[in-house]
Amino acid sequence: MDPVVVLFVRADSIYKTLPGVECYDAERDARTWPGGCPVVAHPPCRAWSALAHLAKPAPGEMDLARFAVRMVRENGGVLEHPASSRLWRDQTLPEPGAGKDAAGGWTMTAPQWWWGHRADKPTRFYICGCDPRDVPDVPFCLGDAPCVVTTSKRKCETPPREWRERLGNREKEATPERLAAWLVELAQRCSKHNAKNDRLSTAGERQA
């Protein structure tokens, strides 16, 4: 099984319990990772979200997401961000359904509820090194998630249209275990991206 690095995890992240995974939390500093294997990136999103005008990001925090994009493009893997993230426009990432960009990356969207989150939490995934037909099986759920992550409660869209619980920050931010495992498997399938880059680099050295 190919090793995978996960960047920008919480100190209590579920990723730290998964085999073959190396994690970078705030203490370790993801910016010190030199690259070299597929990556799963969860860069801070508050400065990029629809509520960015209410956020108070630390100096340089927005650049962490730009760094994550570069790492995914150079090493293969996947970056996760909210469906409303403005990072896509800032970094000229392809919109869902728009095909691949110059780095071979493409975007898919899905709610984290499908992987066990208690709220819908619509999410974008920017993927480099794995074609759409080769991604791990994606679960699918009909209906409404039982909770919300917004600042106000919302009614379900389907009968009986009951009010849904609003999640606290800890549960809102945490990656569901099934999604973490899915993202790691996806990143592992992007390892050919590294092998291709190594071959191109070696060929270039020989020509030189």
What would your notes on this structure say?
It is built from 5 helices and 8 strands, in the order βββαβαββββααα. The longest helix has 17 residues, at 191-207. The chain has one domain (4-141, 173-207): Rossmann fold. With 208 residues, the protein is α/β, with parallel strands linked by helices. 25% of the residues lie in helices and 18% in strands. The strands form 2 sheets. The chain has a 6-stranded mixed sheet with strand order 2-1-3-4-6-5, with helices on both faces.
List key phrases describing it:
208 residues; alpha/beta; Rossmann fold; 6-stranded mixed sheet; two-stranded parallel ribbon; disordered C terminus
Number of strands: 8
In spatial order, strands of the major sheet run 2-1-3-4-6-5
Order of helices and strands: EEEHEHEEEEHHH
According to CATH, the fold-level topology is: Rossmann fold
Mean pLDDT: 86
Number of helices: 5
What fraction, in percent, of the residue positions are helical? 25-40%
Largest sheet: 6 strands, mixed
Number of domains: 1
Strand percentage: 15-25%
Radius of gyration (CA) equals: 18 Å
Taken from the alpha-carbon principal axes, the silhouette is globular
Give the low-confidence spans: 199-208
* CATH architecture group name: 3-Layer(aba) Sandwich
CATH class: Alpha Beta
Termini, distance in Å?
A: 34 Å
Structural class: alpha/beta
